[in-house]
Write a structure and sequence with these properties.
The protein contains twelve helices and eleven strands. The protein is of the alpha/beta class. Helix 9 runs antiparallel to helix 11.
């Protein structure tokens, strides 16, 4: 049986599109749009979408209501079914979690989520990824990866992510040969194709599939569908590997990664949710989401942040006035490097 969703697109005056998905779990999207939906959901699982056109007050100037998300979901499901079996590079983030859960729903035991365990994966993220897989009764295998032993990874230049993914996909290929899985996929979405992500080149070299991107699903759409399915990961902040916090050119070591992890965990204990501790040697540059930043700007909280980061091993602590920015370390890269995108 399928989950009945009202999947709507609204086009604003600037031509931007915002997704609105209504389900028994709630609604994501323009809050001034009232959508009616059927409450047919079975065991918290998202099945083939049965799209219902919702009654909604739409300003004629905003353009037509489109039903693209449901078609993208159907495209994703059909593509997974055609594969027959699949290993998913799984990190526990919303993209790989949604892909893995959808593949499990479509393929059952013919899919396997593969979680790479290394010093660059925070223990908190490891535990959350394992917990979600267990809650979904999803086949999961944890594998050890040794990217830190690669000199080209540890030297931490602009190609670090390529060497990380190259290591992961090589390990998964060996595992697939043992377990008779011929297809490997990862959680790249349609938005990622426009970002600087050297790991995409490794995926291409290993013939790794990107079903979310192939279906045209954007980050917002993946989050919306994950919420509609009742997956608790739907609003989880992005959590790239710990090495992404280390300034380019500084050698990545286990000690450096542990220092970053201790620092970030101490800030979460202070109640902050979306943050980064950027490692600049003796200096920790703290990025906190702008909506949380006012709470950090009291003398008491600044003292607490300073004490926490010094306890983690930093000598100096700076609070970044711009707040949290995903990929902030890439700002120092030359334009010609950034222009390569995923290439």
């Amino acid at each position: 049986m399928g989950l009945e969703l009202a999947v709507l697109y609204f086009r604003d005056g600037a031509g931007c599109r915002a997704v609105c998905i209504a389900s028994p779990y709630g609604q994501i999207g323009p809050q001034d749009r009232a959508a009616k939906f059927s409450d047919g959901i079975i065991d918290g699982m998202l099945a083939s979408a049965q799209v219902k056109v919702a009654e909604t007050a739409v300003d004629p100037n905003t353009g037509p209501v489109e039903m693209e998300v449901a078609e993208k979901l159907r495209r994703l499901e059909a593509g997974l079914e055609q594969l027959g079996s699949l290993m998913v590079a799984y990190s526990g983030g919303v993209d790989s979690a949604f892909l893995a859960a959808t593949a499990h729903r479509v393929l059952g035991e013919r899919m396997l989520a593969v979680l790479a365990d290394s010093p660059s994966l925070a223990r908190r993220d490891m535990e959350q990824a394992a917990a979600f897989a267990q809650s979904m009764e999803m086949p999961l295998q944890v594998v050890a990866t040794d990217e830190l032993d690669r000199e080209e990874y540890a030297r931490n230049d602009a190609n670090r992510c390529f060497h990380c993914k190259d290591e992961l996909f090589a390990v998964m290929e060996k595992l697939g040969a043992t377990l008779d899985f011929k297809n490997i996929a990862y959680g790249m979405n349609a938005d990622d194709t426009r970002d600087f992500r050297p790991g995409q080149r490794a995926a291409e070299q290993h013939a790794v599939l990107a079903p979310l991107a192939d279906a045209g699903l954007t980050k917002l759409e993946v989050r919306a569908l994950a919420k509609a399915a009742g997956y608790p990961v739907w609003d989880r902040p992005a959590a790239p590997c710990l090495s992404s916090r280390v300034e380019y050119g500084r050698t990545v070591t286990r000690e450096v990664l542990e220092q970053v992890e201790r620092g970030e965990e101490s800030l979460r204990q202070l109640g902050f949710r979306e943050l980064r501790v950027r490692h600049h040697g003796e200096l920790a540059r703290v990025e906190i989401a702008r909506n949380e930043l006012p709470r950090a700007l009291t003398m008491e909280m600044m003292d607490a942040i300073t004490a926490a980061l010094k306890q983690a091993g930093f000598k100096y602590v700076a609070l970044d006035c711009q707040g949290f920015r995903s990929g902030a370390m890439n700002a120092v890269l030359p334009v010609e490097v950034l222009a390569r995108r995923g290439a």
